[in-house]
Amino acid sequence: MKYIISLLFFSISLFGFDYHLKSYNMADGVDCFFGLSSTANEINGGNIINSCYVKTKEGYVVIDSGPTYSYAQQSNRVMMQKDRLPVKYVINTTAEEVHILGNNFYKEQGAILLGPKEYKKYEYKNHFKIENSITRDAFQNTRVVPLDQYIDFDDTIYVGGVGINIIKIIEQNDRYLVVNIPSKKIIFVGDMIFNNRLPSLKSGRSIIRWLKGIRKIEGMPWQRLISSHGVHTKYTAIKNTKSYLTILKNTVAEKIEEGIDKHSIIENTKMFSFMDDNLYDKCHKENVALVYNELYKIKQRESKKLDNIYKYKEAEPKIESKKPIKVKKIKIKKPKVKKRTKKVVREPNIRYYSFSQAISKAIANRKIVLIKIHSDNCPFCKALDNTIRKNNEVKRLLNQNFVMVSLNNSRDELPLGIEVDVTPSLAFIRADTREVKMIIPGIEALGELIETLKEGISDGHRGGYLK
After folding, report:
1. Domain residue spans in the chain?
2. Separation between Cα atoms, residue 72 and residue 63, nearest integer Å
3. Top-confidence residue, 247 or 379
4. What is the DSSP letter of 62?
5. Model pLDDT, residue 346
6. How far apart, in whole angstroms, are the C-alpha atoms of residue 147 and residue 99?
7. In whole angstroms, what is the distance from residue 461 CA to residue 467 CA?
8. What DSSP state is assigned to residue 176?
9. Which residues fall within 8 angstroms of residue 125, CB to CB, at 6 or more apart?
10. Residue 322 zone, left/alpha/beta (φ > 0; ψ -120 to 50; rest)
């Protein structure tokens, strides 16, 4: 009994706060700790981000050291239990407290620290926001140390024969890096992707450049994607962030063009498909305001350019020319040619099948089964039906790539254990394996519907089950 008590005391004094860390293998030689989907508090000790370690012949490379000295210490203990190798490098994907405050522990072990240029602003801080949220024992020994190298442009390091690409992913922004390891087919994208919580546009992020950065990530070779938040690691992990930002940008831009004032846009831009995401209530209105500011400034700049062009033209001196000599023109009558009007080809209407019929048809034609789930007394369901019935582009996407099923959640039993709380919802099914690939709740806007269908099509092509 005395031995157990003394061992417990030793454990508490050694680590202060127990993070109960367990790592999960993501690829050959790559393991990750997955943080909780919440904000930092006394219970989780700031364990709200994902951090990883890559094993090479020479030693480990750590991706994001975590929120405290104690967190890094306990992460290192898990690594040493797998293989006693030195930590050669630590790469911070972003300049955020919960990503960088474990650096001091690894620096004491002799690791080389790399990170974004904006990290410098933390180097002279004596107090951090996270201190107000977690316990003293969790924050014990935590302090900021300078980096050995600040990444200002794309770079590659080689450790134990493994090439690691470090990419400055957003133009004109010194805060975010992406780490790609082609030989492991894995990419670490940090705060570029959020797959279980709403993205935040704070920290001066441009929505236009962020979307451009996501397109760059999509174009890189990888099979696993590790973000800072969330456990989804396959291609669909990008969907939530990309869809949210795309729809948000397009919606705000349309409202600005319509002349709607800023306050009304902030208060009335609801995105029902994302309301169940963590931090929606905290972040969404602020995101709308930030996007409005960015897009409105762009519109103002473009208007000023046009005004300057018109002023320049008006200010041009008029040069008087000599009167031209009149020459009689001989008029030649041209035969009248009837203008041919292009016929708009209307897509055939959507056909709906039973689930079993849809599975057979989708397998035979290498298409995706798409279940449209509606319910009684659902006005948005009727609006979605009207869009599917009338919009030519939507019908084209559906006819070419999907076999449709329509089910009433109020009366019908949904297949494959599908459960939805919001209607209308769309469920994407891979027919040959009967795997539910995506369930998208609360579809309303046309742009949202088209983006969702295209995402399903892209996933089908990547997965090889869509022709």
Report:
1. 2-243, 355-463
2. 11
3. 247
4. E
5. 80
6. 13
7. 7
8. B
9. 144
10. beta
Which residue in 442, 402, 437 sits closest to 425, CA to CA?
A: 442
Please report, rounded to a whole number, the percentage of residues in the chain having pLDDT higher than 70: 88
Domains 2-243 and 355-463 share a fold: no
Distance between CA atoms of 414 and 426, rounded to whole angstroms? 12
Encoding tokens for residue 310?
């018109």
Other CB atoms within 10 A of residue 205 CB:
22
Longest C-alpha distance within the chain, in Å?
Answer: 119
At 79, the amino acid letter reads M
What is the CATH number that goes with domain 2-243?
3.60.15.10
Q: What is the pLDDT of residues 403-428, one digit of tens each?
A: 999 999 888 899 998 988 888 889 99
Element (H, E) at 453: helix 446-463
Q: Which helix (H) or strand (E) holds 149?
A: strand 149-151
Confidence of residue 61 (pLDDT cuts 50, 70, 90): very high
What is the DSSP code (8-state) at residue 135?
-
The mean pLDDT value of the chain amounts to 87
- The residues near 238 (Cβ < 8 Å, ≥ 6 apart) are 193, 195, 214, 217, 218, 225
Two structure tokens written together for 356: 């079993």
Q: What is the reported pLDDT for 9?
A: 35
Q: CA 284 → CA 38, 266, 295, distances in Å? A: 16, 9, 16
Alpha helices in 269-331 (DSSP H): 280-315
pLDDT of residue 97: 93
CA–CA separation, 41 and 405 (whole Å): 45
* Residue listed under structure tokens 């180097």: 123
CATH of 355-463, one of 3.40.30.10, 3.40.50.720, 2.40.50.220, 3.50.50.60: 3.40.30.10
**In the predicted model, what is the mean pLDDT of residues 289-295?**
94
Q: Which pLDDT band holds residue 2 (cuts at 50, 70, 90)? A: very low
Provide the residue type at 338 as one letter: K
For 10-59, how does the pLDDT look when each residue is reduced to its tens digit (9 = 90+)?
A: 343 455 799 999 999 999 999 999 998 888 999 999 999 999 999 999 99
Structural tokens at position 188: 């670490």
| Token digits of residue 450 | 């088209």
At residue 235, φ and ψ (nearest 5 deg) are: -60, -35
- Amino acid identity of 39? T
**Distances from the Cα of 331 to the Cα of 5, 66, 295, 328, angstroms:** 111, 83, 53, 9
Q: Tell me the two tokens of residue 425.
A: 């919802």
Mean pLDDT of 266-289: 90
Q: Which two tokens stand for residue 60?
A: 């480990």
Instruction: Enter the tokens of residue 380.
Output: 């948005």
Identify the pLDDT of residue 333.
59
Q: What is the mean pLDDT of residues 198-203?
A: 86
